[in-house]
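SAMPLE LOG
Freezer: B-3
Tube label: C17
Construct: single chain, 618 aa
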Amino acid sequence: MEDVFGPGGALERALPDYEPRREQATLARCVEHALATGEHLVAEAGTGVGKSLAYLVPALESGRRVVVATATKALQEQLLSKDVPIAAAAIGRAVRVEVLKGRANYLCRRQLQGFQPFLLADGRDARAWEAMQGWLDATETGDRAELTLEPTEAFWAELAVGPDRCSGRRCPFVSACFAEASRERAASADLVIVNHALYFAHIASGGGVLPEHDAVIFDEAHRLEESAASWLGGRVSRTGLRRLAADVERACREAQRPFPARQIDRVERTGEKLLRAVAPAAGRKRLREVPAEPALVLMDALADLSNALQGQGEDLDGLARRALAVASELEQCLEPGELDRVVWAEPDALVWAPVDVSSELRDRLWDDGPTAILVSATLTTGDDARFVRRRLGLEHAREAVVGSPYDFPEQALLYVPRTMPDPRGEDFTERAADEIVSLLALSEGRALVLTSSYRALEVYRERVRGRVPYEVLVQGEAPRERLLERFRDEVGSVLLATSTFWQGVDVPGESLSLLVIDKLPFSAPGDPLHEARCEAVERAGGDWFRDYALPTAMLQLRQGFGRLIRGHSDRGVVAILDPRLRTRPYGRAFLAALPRCPIAEDAAAVAAFFGDIIAVSA
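STRUCTURE (predicted):
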């Protein structure tokens, strides 16, 4: 690895602006060792290490087939278009790489043949159909990502199929199938890039989704537990029941078979009755008991539909199995008192998930699966990654912690104002909005504001926009990548966001000079999965706050903090408006988890910091 990453090495020869980083070479050696020994590795690599190249080079040099699983499309695109070509140049040979996505991302030729555009009632869908005509004739991949006009989910579902709706090798179009062609290319690739969801779908299916591989590298590994819980759980939704009914109607029409109208009507009516009975006004509501009568009636209706479809051809037999699969998901929801899973309702669905994924992952992946390498900028809480390893069932994995090459004491200032009220009080959000406006005047915009909730986001939208002379961009008003593109390009703009913007946001340079975090990111009270996990910790004899809630929030705060400094020349302020960072004993744990940098309690220090930046720029 020294010949590649060291001074005068292959990367420096391949990239004129490459800067050798000791931390990057250290991580590469750890990955190389894991691939050579087959030992699982959990590796934290601080911001700026260049972790992608640090695992790509040893992966490609190893001679093994490797799958890289990411959490975001943005990282997949970066790997494919930037990092893999650089790694290939460094090792001096061509590399076969394939991005593999779930079937629902690809156009289905069979669905297209049976599609009837005159049924499009939504004007947006009709316009999308018109805009797609050239692409339909020219596409060689059938990948939805190629489209310049984003179709609605309902419309795209008419042109694509997921694994539950695919006929597989029985399909008459299998020889021209875009999804199958992608899988065939992946089978001969040196490196296959997927997302976490597809990898866990591979596990849940018993290993039938991805080609055989010797190792898997989970990038953005801090999100693995949530991905695993989603794919090892299930849901019964209004959308899913409607899609089942539409597929039955279409299959009966194409096969010239009688449409089971009575059975479909019963499924739709009983499904609607159940979902209305459990639906919360908004958000999620944990269910410790699911109404048994409507659930059992829906299960019976699904079994009745399955019986009506069986024996009428392969497509209808497949739909019969789908109906039984939905009934099986519903059955999982009938015993929420079980200690191993939690059930909750959303406005459109009934959902269940395992409370603890560690044993499932240990049994189905870590013990007998490929060599696993987990990489992220935030895996440790304190001195090690014990918390994450325990949550994922990787207690015996080797561990590596590689720090950031950035000079945080010189590049960053942490501002924790003295005068903010308790964040649990009714007036906190309004006071936070006033503080944000004051800070924006000092930073001259150029700020990302990360909020604790959608409610807070709405308050900040109303109380910040119009009070500052800067463009205020707000999550939800445009697609995520479009918002980030404008934020990068329009220096001086302000981006208000929550949820997914706490991670995966990479805005180097002047456009992000101020990062505001309104509250410490503890999970919202009443979140079903968080609540069930805390209860499980208590049952096991632990302390729910110390052993789960606190370390989870620490990892989230570290993710948010990491949005600020993205290059050696970046300088900026992180403002955390939550006074508990100073007033509560656990505040010290949060501060210890953050990069070391000066801490200020007075806005004058912020003004001086930005004054120094302006003076240097001038």
